[in-house]
Write a structure and sequence with these properties.
alpha/beta
């Protein structure tokens, strides 16, 4: 059985905190990183006992550096140093020492020389019942390719000497993985896994700061593991991640993300790995768009939000049978205003102020969606419901909000509402186009893995957007028929608009909701007639649009008059307009797509600057 493991270097905190987080997440094994042990106050025997109490196997101790190919007297000293590490390993209760390829300028090359060193070390290790795993660092002085490392292990020809294969060190330099399939599985002592985004960096810096969990980056980790599968390897799958964000974040959340990544990778590779740890994953539920979006407010803000929605053409269509909850509808868009004084929505309001507390998604099978989410360590949510009211399965999402799953073919969620009749009008808004969520930059990888692991969403290329006070990273997630789109925004600059939202909102959450329409000019005209006002866009922007695109004069006039932004991709056109920010918390966007797949990234900087002026007006007077 392939146990799931993680190296302690991947997490933040002291060694005991790391071990508790690793065990709590559900890992079966751990690699102890030497610096974590050296900086911790307890003895190796105490650490061994702590791991045993946590049901964690110590599958390796690492790293042992600059061993092979050293001249005397360093060579003799290295063997003495190794014996001391063997003592420590026996106290820890682990039998595997990871040795990475030598980077010392004093080292001498030669495969046979290195094989002789390992053969002698193998004799010493075998006398103690220990093993040595050799790993090729991508920046090793003489050995930087796993194929050379394997040749050294092969020539050493010792039962206590094996190879350690690391996905980053193989994939980042672009080495072919197919030759791995010829390595006997019993000579692979450990497989380490890491992904990484594509970056134009030297490989050492890339490795030390930007590794990520499988599925969070751009490396073909599944191809690497398919080659490993062909060897018959049956040892641990161990995560070794060097990432500044992970080492500064929550050890508990990072450990959960790590296990989630391994579960997803195992599921992806299940046909090649018949004996994997853990229960199989339920298939991804097919999403069909947004069922409803729920806003948590108090009584006063409920009236203000209802007024804004009515200006946007929504009508009050339902009143909850037993709670201070209203339903507002237009086209396929369903919004809920919850001003209850107890329950989850009220707790969310007390913590965050007015804002989105829950999103309900239409799925083909809510039960399977929940089963998959629970296997992937999502936190489930249950709240008492009144007699005859529908209980909707839910999990915790971004910023402590809820994500509900609605069966498309099951009971309707609106059975809890009494219909409210009113004047019927034409529905200008058709559906929810996308939902944008803001979060600290160091949370983005976690939530991207959450969304793509549980839902049938694919990542679009990440965008970098200029805010007047810093850069914002933006990542779109879209399902197959584009009925569900999330845009995840993060910034490490603490004065950008997303960062201000996080500060004002006391955490991550939905910063805006975009609605799709068929004719943005008619839609905006009707909204303005009902009293709606929109974000002011400077004339300079429209002068540039006029110069860039050959738009008809009447179209340009309507863009200017209505503060509508415009973008074009090939033959596709995109129109977008924004409301003012509601209570410094969130805002709405109205969009019209004409064969356009993006999100108006070219206009994002203009919008952010306009909102920044609205929040903090400019001091330069107009003339």
């Amino acid at each position: 059985m392939n146990k799931r493991s993680i190296a302690t270097v991947s997490l933040s905190g002291a060694l005991d905190e790391k071990l508790r987080a690793i065990a709590s997440a559900g890992f079966e094994a751990v690699e102890i990183f030497e610096n974590d042990l050296l900086s911790f106050g307890a003895s190796p025997r105490d650490i061994a006992k702590h791991c045993k109490d946590l049901n964690l196997e110590i599958c390796a101790f690492q790293p042992f550096r600059d061993f092979e190919g050293m001249p005397e007297p360093q060579r003799s000293r290295n063997f003495a140093r190794a014996e001391r590490k063997f003592d420590l390993m026996q106290e820890l209760g682990t039998d595997l020492l990871l040795i990475c390829s030598n980077v010392s300028p004093a080292s001498v090359g030669g495969i046979d020389r290195a094989a002789d060193d390992f053969r002698e070390l193998g004799d010493r290790a075998a006398r103690r019942g220990l093993r040595i795993g050799y790993e090729a660092l991508a920046w090793g002085r003489h050995v930087n390719d796993y194929r050379d490392a394997w040749e050294i292990v092969r020539r050493a020809d010792h039962p206590a000497i094996g190879i350690i294969l690391d996905s980053f060190h193989a994939l980042a330099p672009g080495f072919p993985v197919r030759p791995m399939a010829s390595i006997p599985g019993d000579k692979i002592f450990l497989v380490q896994l890491a992904d990484a985004p594509k970056l134009e960096l030297d490989i050492l810096s890339w490795s030390r700061h930007f590794r990520s969990f499988p599925g969070q980056g751009d490396l073909p980790v599944s191809e690497f593991m398919q080659a490993i599968a062909a060897t018959g390897y049956s040892g641990p799958w161990s995560l070794e991640i060097f990432n500044d964000q992970f080492r500064a974040g929550s050890a508990g959340q990072t450990a959960v993300d790590g296990l989630r990544s391994l579960i997803l990778l195992q599921d992806q590779l299940a046909p090649d790995w018949p004996k994997l740890v853990g229960e199989p994953l339920a298939p991804k539920a097919k999403s069909g768009g947004t069922g409803f979006i729920e806003f948590a407010v108090n009584e006063n803000k409920a009236g203000e939000l209802a007024h804004l929605l009515s200006q946007l053409g929504f009508r009050k269509s339902g009143k909850h049978r037993s709670k201070a909850v209203e339903r507002w509808s237009q086209g396929k868009v369903e919004l809920v205003i919850n001003s209850e004084t107890d329950g989850f929505a009220h707790s969310h309001y007390v913590t965050h102020g007015p804002g989105v507390c829950a999103i309900a998604l239409d799925v083909d099978n809510a039960g399977l969606a929940m089963q998959r989410a629970e296997t992937l360590k999502a936190r489930t949510f249950y709240q008492p419901v009144g007699p005859g009211e529908l209980e909707i399965p839910a999990i915790h999402g971004v910023g402590g909000s809820l994500l509900y799953f609605l069966d498309q073919a099951g009971k309707n969620w609106d059975m809890d509402f009494e219909p409210v009749t009113g004047e019927a009008g034409a529905d200008a808004l058709l559906a929810v186009d996308h939902i944008a969520q803001s979060m600290p930059y160091d949370e983005m990888l976690s939530w991207l893995l959450f969304y793509t692991g549980i839902l049938d969403l694919a990542r679009l290329p990440q965008m970098e957007i200029a805010d007047p006070r810093g850069l914002v990273q933006s990542q779109a997630l879209v399902n197959g028929d584009q009925s569900l789109r999330f845009v995840v925004n993060g910034s490490s600059a603490n004065r950008t608009l997303p960062a201000r939202f996080i500060s004002e909102f006391f955490g991550s959450g939905v910063q805006h909701v975009a609605f799709a329409c068929k004719d943005i000019f008619a839609t905006v005209a009707a909204m303005r007639a009902r009293g709606a006002e929109f974000l002011d866009i400077p004339d300079n922007y429209y002068d540039d649009i006029e110069a860039k695109y050959d738009l008809a004069p009447d179209v340009m006039a309507k863009l200017r008059a209505n503060h509508i932004l415009y973008d074009r991709e090939g033959d596709g056109e995109f129109f977008q307009v924004y409301t003012h920010i509601f209570d410094e918390r969130f805002f709405f966007e109205i969009v019209e797509r004409r064969s356009y797949q993006g999100f108006g990234a070219a206009n994002a900087g203009i919008r952010l600057a306009a909102q920044a002026r609205e929040v903090r007006p400019a001091s330069i007077p107009r003339v």
